[in-house]
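Re: S-adenosylmethionine structure - here you go.
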Amino acid sequence: MKLTIDTDQKTLVCEGVAGREELPLYSDRAFDLIAEQWVKVGWNQRYSYTFSWMGRPIIQLPEDMVRTQEVIYRVKPDVIIETGVAHGGSLIFYASLCKALGKGRVIGIDIEIRPPNRQAIEGHEMASLITLIEGSSTAPATVAKAQSLVRPGETVLVLLDSNHTRQHVADELEAYHGLVTPGSYIVATDGIMKDLHDVPRGQPEWTWDHPTAAAAEFAARHPEFAVEQPSWAFNESGLTRNLTHWPGAWLRRVR
Ligand SMILES: C[S@@+](CC[C@H](N)C(=O)[O-])C[C@H]1O[C@@H](n2cnc3c(N)ncnc32)[C@H](O)[C@@H]1O
């Protein structure tokens, strides 16, 4: 595809297999086309490796965090489980929302919690709301430990941000979906990989090996879940598409 932005004429020309499209630059469609490329170039340039939350690196696209905040405010979970802790930024982000809401706590699972990260998380202002579990997210002992920390009747939201292979995400979905309460979600993050097979830092196998495929296959096997992008809580624009690293990620428990 070839995109040509003419800032003098205020047009965007898109040429591809579907033909040639000339659009006003200041249009919703032009925004979506530019945003798609912005997300790809930004991923390659490690834009999501430039943020922190309350002092801890958070490896996320800020829009994904604001959208997740919209869901957390709406669902008000008692427990948020996240696989993939890394430096702890996202865990602390979720914990800070729980603190602000006066409700909820978080469980973070990682195959390796490096000592400096553990020290920083356990010494953080949000530490009292965080439980860390070290182990592979799909190991039966890890899953059992996480399950044991959830009390009957609690509302649970699960975010999967560990190993992003299709198989691992499929295994995580099977392991954790039973904890998710109706109206809440299990989220297979980072499916943007499917669009990154041709960027310099991408891998050719990402055309098929990605979390979005695992989420779609899971939904086909589990009719109690639907792939459903949470609706925006506020929108005074004509725009409808998320700028996201998490396409097709949100699986809502419908019953
Ligand atoms: C993308 S990082 C997580 C980023 C973090 N959620 C954030 O937003 O800052 C992925 C993490 O998953 C962990 N990981 C990889 N394989 C795993 C597995 N099988 N089980 C649990 N964690 C795993 C890695 O150790 C790494 O810390």
